[in-house]
Amino acid sequence: MSKRIRFPIITVAIILTVLSCETNKETKIVEGINGKGGLISNLKSVCSINSTTIEEEIEIFQPNERELFELKTILNYQGLSENSINFFKSDIQYAFAVVIDNKRYIIYNDDYFKDIDKNTESYWNSLFVIAHEVGHHLIGHTLTDKKSSNESELEADKFAGNLLYKMGASIESSTSFIDKYATTDKSKSHPNKDDRIKAVELGWHEAESMIGNSAIPPPPNNSISNLMIFHPENLIAGYQDYRGWASNFCEGIVLNKKLNDKYLVYITKANDNDFFKNFESVWIHLLDPYIADKFASNASLPDIDAILLPGQRIKFKYHAEGSLVFKYFSYLEALQPLENQQRLFIQKPPLREPNIAALLSGFNEAMEEYESYHGSQVPSDELITVNLKKENYTRQEGIKLSENEKDLMKSKTFTVHDLHLSEVGNVDIYLTGKNIELSAYQNGEFKDSYAKMKGNVEVLDSKNFKLHGMIEMKQYTLSGPELQDTVIEDNKRINGTFLFRKTGSRKYWRLKQEGASGFFQSMNYFDIHSK
After folding, report:
1. Residue 366 domain-assigned (yes or no)
2. Dmax over Cα atoms in the chain, in whole Å?
3. Rounded to an integer, what distance in angstroms lies between the CA atom of residue 198 and that of residue 186?
4. Do 166 and 308 share a structural domain?
5. Does residue 167 sit in the same domain as residue 256?
6. Containing domain of residue 387, as a range?
7. From the CB of residue 402, how many other CB atoms can be counted at a distance below 10 Å?
8. How is residue 64 annotated by DSSP?
């Protein structure tokens, strides 16, 4: 708790009603020692979140860490310095923005912030209030506001709605504060609730329509007739051993290049591919990630670079190794640019609201909420437990690690098919005492989906090992945004002995029990990938 520095108040406090944002030039601030607090005097008018009354003289104190973190986060989203707005708490009614001595200030009531967040069990309400006051500053209302107070408030509401979208808030979260705490009727200083909600929604939808709508690069200046077509035998090193699955033909436009082997492609024609959708941007590798550190592509990199230039329209196939999310080209062809390509903008995929409110708190309890939200701590009474036959296995003590055991222990990547389309999970396989332990975890893409495995490992040979322990998962369908609320596996834990096997030239061990044998309802591939 910050120590409050008391200043003697000589004059009698005068109560004023907020009617305008325009700041009186005679307003003064005296900050305490080392900026610990202070006193604002001759306060005539401010920009407040709601109709309120203020005193001409108020004491101010250092803000709480949580609210300061929220302000810094908002300023970071706007590309502003964290010190561009001075921030203090006080015993006022709500929160307000004001300019004093050519410096921007936001003053707030910390008890009020706690109440509005507690009532909605999220941090979006306090974030909205701070964003609203930041909007008053950035729009210029706190300088010389020639507009009506009602018009200024609607502009600040719109600004806050726009900003909260960028931070990940749903439209319901963005309008929550106005819906619960704004006055129903219009006043001299503030619009009615319905008009304010419309302003927030307008800002939110404008951000939704613009976010990610960057321009597609213009076609490169090259001769399409001189560009080559690369078939699998050109692109895949060791093609004679290649037996992998390849996608349907796709079309897209190259947006960016990262180093020499990773390209960002904007998909214009997905052709019913499982991993890509029209109008989304995806990273595709030039080389198989398993052999990229040993082999170059069969084709020369300068020839490939002649195709994979920003703005180049391409036709391609991709290959994916098992359930690994990395994709790499198995066919590549240059196409003529689209007729209107220079006027195209990247369309934004549907918003998936993260649990950013918990992340923004900066406190342990919020991080615990975040971890619980992502399935890392599932209460035992919510688990559906199935016990299969479990073999008794204990590794002989004092036996040196075999080459097959060492090879398996190098694995660091764990993936479950369709659990997450852009991120992989981690596996840790280590020697503890005489046993080899395995612990694996992968977050899902939607809500609280996840998968994890834990237990003792019995290595049979270079192609097979057994896990004596448990596998646990929760998963939603990936059939489309409208179906992502459909649970197909609900916190299910399977205890038993599980066989993992490498087949052919594959570079991963795959769980052999599948949905058809009564294991999990969904046909999921659980894969442990070689280093």
Report:
1. no
2. 91
3. 14
4. no
5. no
6. 383-529
7. 12
8. P
Residue 129 tokens, joined: 């209030």
- Residue 497: what are its φ and ψ, rounded to 5°? -110, 130
For the stretch 169-210, pLDDT in tens is 888 889 999 998 888 888 877 889 999 999 999 999 888 776
Q: Which of 343, 372, 392 is the last residue of a domain?
A: 343
How many independent structural domains does the chain possess?
A: 3
Task: Tell me the mean pLDDT in the region 133-156.
Answer: 83
d(CA 388, CA 495): 6
Whether the Cβ atoms of residue 504 and residue 481 lie closer than 8 Å to each other: no
Question: For 146, how many CA atoms within 13 A lie in the half-sphere containing its CB?
Answer: 0
| Least confident stretch, 171-185, 290-304, 419-433, 508-522 | 290-304
User: Which position has the higher pLDDT, 364 or 80?
Assistant: 80
pTM over cut 0.70: no
pLDDT band of 386, cuts 50, 70, 90: confident
Based on the fold, state whether residues 170 and 239 are members of the same structural domain: no
Query: Does 200 map to a domain?
Result: no
Strands 103-108 and 86-89 come out as parallel
Q: What whole-number distance in Å separates Cα of residue 359 and Cα of residue 337?
A: 43
228: CATH: 2.40.50.140
- Whether 212 maps to a domain, the answer reads no
pLDDT tens digits for range 454-491:
999 999 999 999 999 999 888 876 544 444 556 777 77
Q: Which residues contact 417 (CB under 8 A, 6 or more apart)?
A: 322, 323, 524, 525, 527
Q: How far apart are alpha carbons 137 and 139 in whole angstroms? A: 6
CB-CB neighbours of 216 under 10 Å: 21
Do 150 and 41 sit in the same domain of this protein?
Answer: yes
Q: Find the CATH number of the domain harbouring 116.
A: 3.40.390
Given 3-state DSSP classes, what are the helix, strand and coil percentages for the chain, each rounded to the nearest 5? 25, 30, 45
Of 133, 159, 183, the domain-final residue: 183
Q: How far apart are CA 5 and CA 337, in angstroms?
A: 67
Judged by DSSP in three states, 437 sits in: strand
Highest mean pLDDT among 36-50, 57-71, 235-249, 501-515: 57-71
* Residue 170 sits in the same domain as residue 50: yes
List the one residue out of 220, 223, 237 whose CA is nearest residue 295: 237
Judgement on whether residues 400 and 326 belong to the same structural domain of the protein: no
Q: What is the mean pLDDT of residues 63-71?
A: 88
Q: Which two tokens stand for residue 104?
A: 């921007």
In a shared domain, residues 151 and 21: yes
* 310 and 244 in a common domain: yes
Q: Identify whether 190 is part of a domain.
A: no
- The Cα–Cα gap between 412 and 423 comes to 13
Contacts of 419 (CB under 8 A, 6+ apart): 425, 442, 444, 445, 449, 450, 451, 473, 475, 524
